[in-house]
Amino acid sequence: MSEPVTIIGNYLSPYVRKVLVCLELKGIPYRIDPIAPFVGNEEFSRLSPLRRIPVLLDGGLVLNDSTVICEYLQDRYPDPSLYPSGAVPRAQARWLEEYADSQLGDVIVWRMFFQKGVRRFLFNEGTDDDVVRKARDEELPVALDYLESQLPERGWIFGELSIADITLAAFFRNAVFVCHDVDASRWPRVAGLLERAWALSAFQTLATYENDMLRTPLDQQRSVLAAMGAPLTETTLGNAPARYGMRRLA
């Protein structure tokens, strides 16, 4: 195994979580600079021109976008495979990954988690309760209805654990952060998949860090993570004043 790769991005981001779970499952050593994109300095802007997380550094290689990163990791470290075999199931898995990145990103991350967490604690701005209510009561149920129609009654979506299972579970973790659980009586297939995925040691390992980060101000998170033994980089790019960047976190 080569030198550890470096990941730039916060543990509370579902896009970062997706990449970290892939690294954990493949046994790839990594270090992390757990910044939010809103506090990235000029070097962060150079590495991530859209000011999105995650960013992967592997030697001289710089990659942006969680989907691109996960596909690179699969190509370079093919075992265990986290993509189905066969053109059709692989395409279907990539679609579910994109659906999560796009639709669940909008609904869960931006209209729920950002409104109730990031906007209030990082920017000292009020929560738009109408946005949260519409996302929770109208938009998320539509997404759940669709996903319920796509998932099997039991097991993983394509028989073996894949990027589709990982990505869906990564995004619904952020719904839990704002106290919203999937109703198992209404969406049993989604709820069952999440339960199975979150029980994996990869998700459990990350949850230890995530749960503490939720209770820790952003400027104190690095020191708390260091005390917990997180695999941190020696330096950080997250030392600039908070400012809005590009909307999607990649």
How would you explain this protein's 3D organization?
- With 250 residues, this protein is of the alpha+beta class.
- It folds into 2 domains: 5-81 and 201-228, Glutaredoxin; 87-198, Glutathione S-transferase Yfyf (Class Pi), Chain A, domain 2 (Up-down Bundle).
- It has 9 helices and 4 strands.
- A 4-stranded mixed sheet has the order 2-1-3-4, with helices on one face.
- Strand 3 (55-58) and strand 4 form a beta hairpin.
- The two termini are 27 Å apart.
Task: Give the arrangement of secondary structure elements.
Layout: E1 5-8, H1 14-26, E2 30-33, H2 42-47, E3 55-58, E4 61-64, H3 66-76, H4 87-121, H5 129-150, H6 163-177, H7 188-198, H8 201-213, H9 218-228
CATH architecture tag of the largest domain: Up-down Bundle
Low-confidence stretches: none
Q: Per CATH, what is the topology of the largest domain?
A: Glutathione S-transferase Yfyf (Class Pi), Chain A, domain 2
Task: Tell me the count of domains.
Answer: 2
Report the top-level CATH class of the largest domain: Mainly Alpha
Distance between the termini: 27 Å
DSSP strand tally: 4
Mean of residue pLDDT? 94
Share of residues in strands: 5-15%
Number of helices: 9
Shape by Cα distribution: globular
**Going across the major beta sheet, what is the strand order?**
2-1-3-4
What is the share of helical residues? 40-55%
Sheet/helix structural class: alpha+beta
Compressed to H and E, one letter per element, the order equals EHEHEEHHHHHHH
Q: What's the Cα radius of gyration?
A: 17 Å
